[in-house]
Design goal:
heterodimer, A: about 220 residues, mainly beta, Alpha-Beta Plaits, three-stranded antiparallel β-sheet, about 30% strand, globular, B: about 280 residues, alpha+beta, four-stranded antiparallel β-sheet, four-stranded mixed β-sheet, 8 helices, 10 strands, about 30% helix
């Protein structure tokens, strides 16, 4: 396994809807590993389980065996523009005649209409660093067409570039991702007392005190 | 390839009215601006005219496919549970205080297998969100601001794209909303930006490789059911689009699926179980 520099060429903005506003590369890779075998996994979201990513080096495991993968978050590596976009949810009143109960309370409850804002980040290049197997990482990423939140409409990746860069060290990776304090690894960032550090990042019971990177971009 | 990918080149036969969603903070004029998207043009942040993929998802795929399915299954007015109707036409909402059943993923997969439209577009039932939808959309105006991207996804259009700026495709229309009384004033003028007739839009459709054959075919069938309009002011003839070219698959597999599973599909919609044996949408 060698140092890798991973670049995503984007053609549409990324909706960074995760709690920490970042795009986690280990999450993207875990999804790529999981998708083809999804039907073999426990049929419940309550049964969250670790997805192994053999293409990446594992830096540390906690006492339950959850892995800290040697890959940073994906960050903009080019000038960026952040903006707010709005999504609207409406009750389909033009088809309400099909329903047993045509009228609905659209001011509150299940059919409440709404306008939700989303922070989106436009940047043509997003970059991460990792320690792993170049060919395997490339193959996994080639199966990923979109990244970030609301990926049905945002975050279209035109192509992934995975290049070997022996200048990338484990410390580089550690400094650019969340690392549990319990891992005892040296980190240049700041302390966050409640933070995700391994996929799935939406699963709060796995959150713990972590060191987080201060920098928000790799642009030099 | 780990996914299916299709392209459709659309051209506006009439001007497109597609209002931006920004508030007065970003729009201090009286004109309703055309939809814009933040992006970098030659390294400079600009809000560039764009078409919302989210809007196209509803207009081209969700509503036409739902209409077709309802009609093909012979579903009559006043027979669908409210949550089912809401899921088919608006993506659904979870009910307050709902608790997901333990086997929610298995139920979701079962529903997706029986209903290619749900496989494609996803949504939420009363108690949980269905597993991730298989359809992803991206779309770009064939204009200079998007030329770099178009060069990579549809090189044959790059030269055409680089000839015109998206901002040069914008125009304004002003209309009058009357009160029915010729005297007494109280008429309201309103102005909105439009995108010129003749403008071209490249629509890219990505479908996960794990999607069923019928779901992939439903992508093509959606275009056959679509009324050809996007954006607003359709009553005034705005937003009529023409498909210039496409790489869509054959739609027969979707029609075969409906023909082969029609009874089960109809029953699953009417009782809100979606063929899972458990009521997922009440009302």
């Amino acid at each position: 396994m060698r140092g890798l520099r991973i670049t995503a060429h984007l053609s549409t903005p990324v909706a960074t809807l995760s709690q920490d506003g970042r795009v986690h590369l280990d999450s993207v890779l875990a999804y790529a590993v999981m998708r083809p075998i999804e039907h073999t996994l426990p049929p419940s979201r309550q049964s969250v389980q670790v997805i192994e990513i053999p293409a990446l080096r594992c830096l540390w495991r906690d006492e339950d065996g959850k892995p800290l993968w040697a890959c940073s978050d994906l960050m903009p590596a080019s000038p960026t523009m952040q903006s707010i976009e709005y999504g609207h949810r409406r009750y389909p009143s033009d088809r309400a005649h099909l329903s047993k109960k045509p009228s609905a309370n659209t001011a509150a409850g299940q059919f409440k209409e709404g306008r939700r804002q989303m922070l989106v980040t436009a940047a043509p290049l997003w970059e991460a660093v990792a320690i792993g197997n170049r060919d395997e990482v490339q193959a996994l990423l080639d199966s990923i067409s979109h990244i970030g939140g609301r990926s049905v409409n945002y975050g279209r990746v035109i192509r992934w570039e995975v290049t070997i860069d022996d200048a990338v060290t484990e410390q580089d990776v550690i400094n650019r991702r969340s690392v549990p304090v319990a891992a005892g690894l040296e980190h240049s960032g700041t302390l966050n007392s409640f933070c995700g550090w391994t996929p799935p990042y939406w699963y709060h019971p796995w959150y713990t005190a972590c060191m987080e990177p201060e920098q928000c971009s790799y642009q030099k | 390839m780990s996914f299916h990918r299709f392209q459709v080149l659309l051209q506006a036969a009439t001007p497109i009215a597609h209002g931006d969603t920004v508030t007065g903070i970003d729009n201090q004029t009286n004109t309703r601006l055309f939809m814009r998207q933040g992006m970098l043009v030659n390294g400079i942040p600009v809000r560039v005219p764009a078409i919302s993929e989210n809007a196209l998802r509803s207009t081209i795929f969700r509503a036409p496919l739902a209409d077709h399915m309802v009609q093909a299954l012979g579903i009559e007015s006043g027979t669908l549970p409210q949550g089912v109707m809401n899921l088919l036409y608006a993506g659904g909402n979870m009910a307050a205080g709902s608790k997901a059943p333990a086997q929610e993923v298995a139920l979701g997969i079962k529903a997706r297998t029986l209903y290619p439209v749900i496989d494609l577009l996803g949504g939420a039932v009363d108690a949980f969100i269905l597993p991730r939808a298989c359809l992803r959309l991206a779309c770009w105006l064939v204009a200079d601001e998007y030329a770099d991207t178009i060069a990579q996804v549809a090189p044959e259009l790059e030269s055409e794209a680089s000839k015109v700026s998206a901002f040069d495709l914008l125009a304004e229309e002003t209309r009058t909303r009357g009160t029915g009384q010729h005297s007494g004033g109280n008429q309201m003028l309103y102005t909105y930006e439009t995108l010129a007739a003749g403008s071209k839009i490249l629509l890219e459709i990505t479908v996960d490789a794990q999607a069923g054959e019928a779901a992939v075919a439903a992508v093509a069938h959606a275009f056959q059911c679509w009324d050809g309009y996007i954006g607003g002011q359709g009553r005034q003839g705005r937003g009529r689009m023409v498909v210039l070219s496409h790489t869509l698959p054959d739609s027969q597999a979707y029609l075969d699926h409906i023909a082969g599973h029609g009874e089960a599909m109809k029953e699953g919609l009417l009782d809100g179980t979606f063929g899972t044996g458990l009521q997922l949408c009440a009302g």
